[in-house]
Amino acid sequence: MTTAVGPTLVKKAVILSAGMGTRLGALTQNLPKVMVPIAGKPMLEHHLEWLKGFGVSEFYLNLHYLADVISDYFEDGSRWDVKIHYHREERLLGTAGSLHGFRPFLDQTFLVQYGDVFSRLDLARLALFHRQHEAAASLVVHPSSHPHDSDIIELADETRIRQIHHKPGDARFGNLGNAGAYLLEPVVLDHLSPDLREEDFCKDVFPRMLAAGETVCGYDTDDLLLDVGTPERLAWIEDHLKSA
To answer: Cα–Cα distance between 91 and 67 in angstroms, integer?
Structure first.
C-alpha cells in the first residue's frame, strides 16, 4: 500500500472495471481483468488501498464482463472501510459513457482511473496542480515510447492542452501519452452525449471541452502508472513490487 503525502479533498473515484482483458489471454477466461492477481491480491484491490491512503472513501465501479466476480468479492466495500457503488452496463459504454451510471453522485471533484493501469500516482500533488490551474479536467500524462497505440496529448504551454490525438497517435505532436487517470470537475458531465451511447474521453469528451473553452490541463509526472493489460507488463509489475 502506498504512503500518502497527505489527504486530499478528493473523496470520490470512478474505476473503469468493465473490460474483458482479451490481451491477457487465459488469465481472463474466468476473471475480469481488474481481478487478475498482482502480488497476491486483485489489481482492483490495489487501487482501493492506494486511493484510500489519500482519503478517497467512495468508489464507483462500472461492470460488464463477469460482473458478479467483482461485486461478490468487494460487496459494499465495508471490509476496506469505504463505500462502493456499482453500475452494470448491458453493453459497453466506453471510458466516458460509463459516467452515465453515476451522474447523480458525481457532484464534486472526482478521479477517473483506468482499471488496468497499475498506479502509484501521488493524488495529493495532482489535486494541488488541478486547483492551482482551476482546471475542469486534469489529465495525467507521461512520455510514451509507443505513440502508435497511445493517445498523444499536445500541450500549448507547460500545462494547458492544445489538442488530443486519439490513438493511434502521431509522434509529430510530441511523445506525451495519456496515462489513464483524470481528475475531473462535475462540468465534464455537461459534455457527455445526452443519450446513452459509447463514448471515449480522448476521442469525444475532452475535444468537446476544449472546443467549448474549458480549462483542460496535462499533468506530467514520473509517478508509476503502467498499463498491465498484457502478460509481459503484468510480469514486469510483479517483479517490480517484489524488488521494491
So the answer is: 12
Q: CB neighbours of 172 closer than 8 A, spacing ≥ 6?
A: none
Task: Break the chain into its structural domains and give their ranges.
Answer: 12-243
Residues 221-237 have pLDDT tens digits of 999 999 998 999 999 99
Q: What is the DSSP string of 12-66?
A: EEEEE-----GGGGGGGSSS-GGGSEETTEEHHHHHHHHHHTTT--EEEEEE-TT
DSSP single-letter state for residue 107: -
pLDDT at 5 over 70: no
Contact 137, 109 (CB under 8 A): no
CB 219 within 8 A of CB 122: no
26 is written with which cell numbers?
487465459
Q: Report the DSSP pairing between strands 41-42 and 37-38.
A: antiparallel
Euclidean distance between CA atoms 5 and 95, whole angstroms: 28
Average pLDDT over residues 73-80: 98
Q: Could you tell me the fold of the domain covering 12-243?
A: Spore Coat Polysaccharide Biosynthesis Protein SpsA; Chain A (3.90.550)
Exposed (0-12), middle (13-18) or buried (19+): which is 158, by Cβ within 10 Å? exposed
